[in-house]
Amino acid sequence: MIDEKGGRTNELKMIKGAHLYYPDPEKAGKSVAGSVENFSFLLEESWKNPSKFWSDVASELHWIKRWDKVMEGSFPHFKFFVNGVMNPCYNLIDRHLGEEAGNRLALIWEGENGDTKFYTYRMLHAEVCKFSNVLKGLGLRKGDTVAIFLPNLAETVIAVLACYRLGILFNTIFSGFSGRSLGDRLIRYGPKVVITADGAYRRGRIIELKSKVDEAIRDVKTVENVIVCRRVGNMKTPMKEERDHYWSDLMRGASIDCPPEPMEANEPGIVFYTSGTTGSPKGVVHSSVAFVLNNYVYAKYHMDHHPDDVFWCTADIGWLTSHIWGIAGALANGVTTIFYEGAMDYPKPDRFYQIVDKYRVNKIFTAPTLVRMLMRYGEEYMRPYDLSCIDVVTFVGEPLNPEAWHWTYEVLGKEKIYVNNTWGQTETAGCPLASAAWITPMKPGSCGIQFLGADMDVVDVNGEKIPDETPGNLVMRRPIPMCVRTLWNEPERYIKEYFTEIEGCYYTYDQAVRDKDGHFWVLGRLDDVINVAGHRLSTMEIESAITRCGGVVEAAVVGAPDPIKGLTPIAFVTPQLNHEPSEEFEQRIMDSITDMIGKIAIPSRIYFTDVMPKTPSGKIMRRLLREIVTYGGIKGDISGLEDPTAIDKVKELVKK
């Protein structure tokens, strides 16, 4: 923890001076909450009586058998809706098959090359049932394991929903991973079936996927079948007789009748691998029933979902956010969800705007990285498009700096939209810190308030609550349904990883501040602190000073060993396209840091770079930057990288 005297001074000044932006009262009256007063009452009741709140939420969904008890136990072992039985897929698809809703558009898919597919809820239901019968035909039953190694295709969504329907455990893996990284996860997970494609389009290139799977499963003894989607179609794809099957061949003649499998509310359904700060990837296990139920109500208020929404979560299916928002949150609320295969700036930097305009997207969930990219390209790419359809833009992943917030609100949204910044982790499976769209006052840079049913706190090292506007450790004191239940095949690691730092709490490893208005500000990871000549400096505060300098899109600061100071800041800076690196540019950055923090925080080196090592979610992997400047190479796990070539580019930059 860093106190105000230890390096957070300017950051805390920014937090204390942040202004509330109050939503349009007319919009609040038309929200799903109905009014600010209605939501405020619901919020207070959810904190005071969480058992009743979760019972009321669950009653909005379809159950085969009602639960005996709403909540049982606490961290680390807990249950919700004990002995309650339902099916997640039924609540995502079947529940909407009434005469009117069934013909509503459920899924829009667009490929990088312009290919499109459209599914109503009835059409999607038929395809999901057919693929469910395909999986049953391969011998899969409730509790079996499937791995999905696909890009953002319509078939990817269908495969996920089929697993929900049959009670099959599934694990989606980012399709940009190498065969080695894929194999590492498959060995740990042990799937019976792997679902992939012949290839995928990425920035005009065709990426082979099936060949990666063949390489990966050589040492995976559990794999019995591989299902291959023909995405490219005309490429040569090696197929092993009896083991490998084309999706289209299996679907031909499959029945559209497949009853949903009953599932007890606490049975595992999702295994999702996430790279930790240290050590091997962790297989985070979630209950699929709780995952769908919790994200149904959170998405409802985070996005202010209405049946006629056209919603776009820009995340890759290899990031749990795509499941949280693009599948569970969207379909549980009966809206139209968009899945897009390609990069947001290919073939031209206007691709994002093009899709928003084309489909009249009114609700967007994305990462701050996207906005910073759009800022970098400039407003000229925006001008040809009518973006007046945009109503709500919600963020997660990286800290949303105030400059990016203001650009989203003022430039992209013309001050007519709601900007909702959130906080969540793979382990929380959603965002217990967020705002309710068109209800909660907005604050540029904050992660919103403690959300429905959550019990978040900022504490000292002993777990004692600390005063508002004081930095501390962010913890969750009480579980919510969608919290992590264990780590796949590593129950001891589950306890050690999350529940040994602060007794009785889930430990997030994040620093945070709660302000006087109840807004939370997540300041960064606990290791994002460097000690420079006895001064404890926040790398996030230095990054904030850099991004306030005109012409900077994003920045990452890490500490490097220094024989005199102990550690010294090193900055990696991505400039806007029209700002070339120069001594004058570098001096303006140093002046900004001096003005905001002091000369002690000036980096010993500033590297200008167009690439940063990032996860599929858009998070900059500062750990890898730290290893490069310290050791000249990478010592830890890099399997979570979206683009592994970024490492070589940064290494070359540092060598110069």
From TrEMBL:
Keyword Hydrolase: no
SUPFAM superfamilies to which the protein is assigned, alphabetical: Acetyl-CoA synthetase-like (SSF56801)
Pfam families reported in the protein's UniProt record: ACAS_N, AMP-binding, AMP-binding_C
Sequence ranges assigned to domain Acetyl-coenzyme A synthetase N-terminal in this UniProt record: 42-91
Alphabetical list of InterPro entries matching this protein: Ac_CoA_lig, ACAS_N, AMP-bd_C, AMP-bd_C_sf, AMP-binding_CS, AMP-dep_synth/lig_dom, ANL_N_sf
One Gene Ontology MF term: acetate-CoA ligase activity
GO cellular component terms, A-Z: cytosol
GO biological process: acetyl-CoA biosynthetic process from acetate
Keywords associated with the record: ATP-binding, Ligase, Nucleotide-binding
This protein's record includes keyword Endoplasmic reticulum: no
EC number annotated for this UniProt entry: 6.2.1.1
Enzyme class: ligase
Residue intervals of the AMP-dependent synthetase/ligase domain: 100-480
Record-annotated AMP-binding enzyme C-terminal domain positions: 541-619
Family from the record: Belongs to the ATP-dependent AMP-binding enzyme family.
Stated name of the protein: Acetate--CoA ligase
Organism this protein belongs to: Candidatus Methanolliviera hydrocarbonicum
